[in-house]
């Protein structure tokens, strides 16, 4: 029997009983549990096979509940929350003392966001506690953007995927930390850098080495298909190089003519980066199931969501 269901009250019952449930968000599906339940949080780490030092994102239903989670809100964090929540921005702030170490990897900060998905907002509003939820994929694999992706990964490990349709943004939230009250990008994501800068001014991006092993999303190899994947600005040249192989191609907007290509996916024929982002992981899942020798992915223009897409492709190919 399928574990996929649209029954919110069933999700409420399972989560209240300290069980874990996969939930939809606008970015990717998350594997969720009560932040105050050690049993649930341990189950999240074990199911994902995720190292315990990697902290989780706390999902809350409204900005009013933020002071239950964090001890202090810098002015620019308040501005960002008001501008983008509910939405794909995660703020890393000083935690309240009662937030368990298991959620934060023992750090004194906690990551928090309000997801922009009606089903999950309804769920959060019915619960007495926030939900910790990392992306619902085994550690370092491609993130799930449909309930079916989650089912494929975890049908033997969890009781329920709350179905909220395909994720509309399709890549993870942008993560922003604060140093001396100034925002710093920890992970590029579904909110474009330029949109963030329009609210808080120029913002620094910390590269993964500076942020240490804190963040799996910042590890060099992550979001990775099992098939060898390469990233290039010159698809035609790459196709020639792999001429005798089974080739898959992931293009931004234009189709390439070549008999060597076994499967080709164009992310957005009209060249819309938001559309491309929403299809990115689904396309990688598809290509990965096609028994190819190599996936050749086209590098995006380095601005707007293109920057975030390149970040994910880079890690998928590392
Ligand atoms: O869009 C998203 O953010 C999705 C959906 C489900 O909300 N969640 C997600 O979670 O991408 P996850 O666990 O795959 O990535 C969370 C990232 C990790 O890289 C983690 O290390 C970082 O957030 N993080 C969490 N708490 C942190 C903290 N206190 N300091 C620095 N990084 C933190
Ligand atoms: Mg993840």
Automatic annotation (TrEMBL):
What's the catalysed reaction?
L-threonine + hydrogencarbonate + ATP = L-threonylcarbamoyladenylate + diphosphate + H2O
Decide whether keyword Cytoplasm is in the record: yes
One Pfam family name is Sua5_yciO_yrdC
Q: Which domain of life is it from?
A: Bacteria
Q: Does the keyword Phosphoprotein apply?
A: no
Into which EC class is this enzyme placed?
Answer: transferase
Q: What is its EC number?
A: 2.7.7.87
Listed GO molecular functions?
L-threonylcarbamoyladenylate synthase
Instruction: Give the keywords, sorted.
Output: ATP-binding, Cytoplasm, Nucleotide-binding, Nucleotidyltransferase, Transferase, tRNA processing
Q: Where is the YrdC-like domain?
A: 5-191
Localization of this protein: Cytoplasm
Q: What does this protein do?
A: Required for the formation of a threonylcarbamoyl group on adenosine at position 37 (t(6)A37) in tRNAs that read codons beginning with adenine.
- NCBIfam families assigned to the protein according to its UniProt record, in alphabetical order: L-threonylcarbamoyladenylate synthase
What does the similarity note say? Belongs to the SUA5 family.
Q: What is this protein called?
A: Threonylcarbamoyl-AMP synthase
Phylogenetic lineage = Bacteria, Pseudomonadati, Bacteroidota, Flavobacteriia, Flavobacteriales
